[in-house]
Amino acid sequence: MTVSEAPQSGTDLAPLKAYIGGQWVESDAQAYEDVTDSATGEVIARCPLGGRSDAERAVAAAAKAFPAWRDTPVQKRCHILFELRQRMVAAQDELAASLSREHGKTVPDAAGEVRRAIDMVEFAAGTFAHMKGESLLDISSGIDCVSHRMPLGVVAGITPFNFPMMVPMWMLPLAIALGNTFVLKPSEKDPLTIMMIARMLDEIGLPPGVLNMVTGGKELGEALCTLPDVKAVSFVGSTPVAKAVHAKASAHGKRVQALGGAKNHAVVLPDADLEKTVQALTAAAYGSAGQRCMAISAVVAVGDIGDPLVEGLAKEAANLRLGAGCRAESEMGPLITADARDRVRGYLGKGVDEGATLVVDGRQRGPQGDNTAGGHFIAPSLFDRVTTEMSIYRDEIFGPVLVVLRAKSLDEALEIVNGNAFGNGTAIFTNSGGAARRYMRECTVGMVGINVPIPVPMANFSFCGWKDSFFGSLHAHGPDAIQFYTETKVVTERWFSSDPGEGGIRKWGL
Ligand code: NAD
Q1: Which atom of ligand 1 approaches the CA of 224 most closely?
Q2: Catalytically active residues, by annotation
Q3: What does the DSSP assignment read for 390-426?
Q4: H/E stretch holding 158
């Protein structure tokens, strides 16, 4: 199959196949999830909701492939990734169009996700440098010590719907470059584009079983957390599931990194550049319809910047062009499902009941363009005068809803941010270096932007959520992930004589 053989649409579509042991095979699933074009509601694929038997087949194939893959020279493993990178670059428009269709994000946003995924492949292709161990001669008399990074074996990845390509690519390229074999369970809501990557790797000649891809939901995910041959689980998704995955997989003796949800705050100080801050916050709150784990969903306005800030944000939110992701004019697309849209609508009602001021109501405005009646659209919304007890502040809404809280000082802003359960990302907007530095040091959040609204680390740094946004000890991608996907082996060696003598090498004719 080639990349261009993207699924067609229709109601009697054949179910997607699983990729196991280098073959595209039928799932054992008895149930299916419809994958939809989020802008029209049209069904574009039927995703099997596989269970334990699919997990067992995929893990068995990965376990079988492991010894030969571990022994494949690291340079050869990296060559496959160099080739993957070339193919992804050549196909980036096609990959972005597919992402936009199954997820709903705008094409430029999807293209950014593809570029981030390519960055991950580039980082992993440098594994011959990352994988090097250490050595020390004469650690004791005539004794040398060497450490090696050894792959773990079978690693499983379970990923969310909101970055259907980038998040799996936080895991897959590095896990296999380091000599592991990999089983991926992408989100059942939008698994199509990441399957294109499996096809590319298959065409490049990745040995059978090194990568396996199976589709399903909770049952399949739980099976991957319990099967004995799985040595490590990388999970990204909502906090309740991250907690459950961390507990279950840890109880079954696996190494686990489980990334959860977020409520990312932007603190805006009175000396911030108002216009630039409004633009940055609008993009960070409503980009991808707010379905980013690093979206800014809460603003803490300090002092007298509050009123002009809310006025500026309201103007931008009300004017943002809503429409299908593939439409060139669109600045924001639909939500992933009708349920997700209805959940956001529910929060708009709750916020009003809780006493917040709904400055811009996204329920009042529909999308532009044709054929959107079945799409999952809701326009951007803005709440002001929100307090920390309200559910619209405490919960991760995961939609285009921005809430503004007011604070009198940086101290009060820090108290709000540090009192929140989540600790994924945060940003401060100010022209004061001293205030920014203090905020950076004292906030209990793992990724901090200074006049940068979405401080997502590039591939060579790790993605470092804190508090309820992360369960585990080694974070995703970058240096932490190199450690996560490898185990250290230390060799201490001594040779009794440096002179082989009569019976030594001369005897062997060397
Ligand atoms: P989700 O938690 O509903 O699902 C994530 C994945 O887990 C899916 O593949 C799903 O099928 C699987 N799953 C569901 N129940 C499971 C179980 N009991 N055991 C094992 N697997 C199970 O998340 P979602 O709605 O797909 O994604 C959105 C969420 O992901 C948001 O909360 C967002 O903040 C979060 N997210 C976090 C990050 C991060 O880096 N921290 C990145 C992206 C998304």
Answers
A1: 20
A2: 293
A3: SHHHHS---SSEEEEEEESSHHHHHHHHHHSSEESEE
A4: strand 154-158
